[in-house]
Amino acid sequence: MDDHLASVEHLTDEVTLVAPTAAVQHSRDGRQLRVLIADLARQGRVRIVLDLADMGELWSFDLAALMHGLQLCRTGGGAIALVCGMRQHREALAKAGLDAVFVLSDTVPQAVESLARVQPPEVAP
To answer: Model's pTM, two decimal places?
Structure first.
């Protein structure tokens, strides 16, 4: 992933911080965000803190990319925590019913702490 699209930092052995820039939205189809999260999941990085601070308005394709990423992370036993201090991000997530699906936090440290409490899904026998 190009550095101008997002910064990626491995905060712990399990948690990765991803901070997409507004440039990740320029494709207007969510492809860049989808690829970024999928690449991390393939590397086994399935506990992701996604800091939305530099992203503009969340469009339907952004929300679809987040859902796709969450499915990949959950399949690997992880989760995605969204840092969304901006009211417009929380409103977009709530309007789509995704505020109940994602771990939402105001700050990166809160998101990391929240991810530590997320238990992997149980596998059916």
So the answer is: 0.86
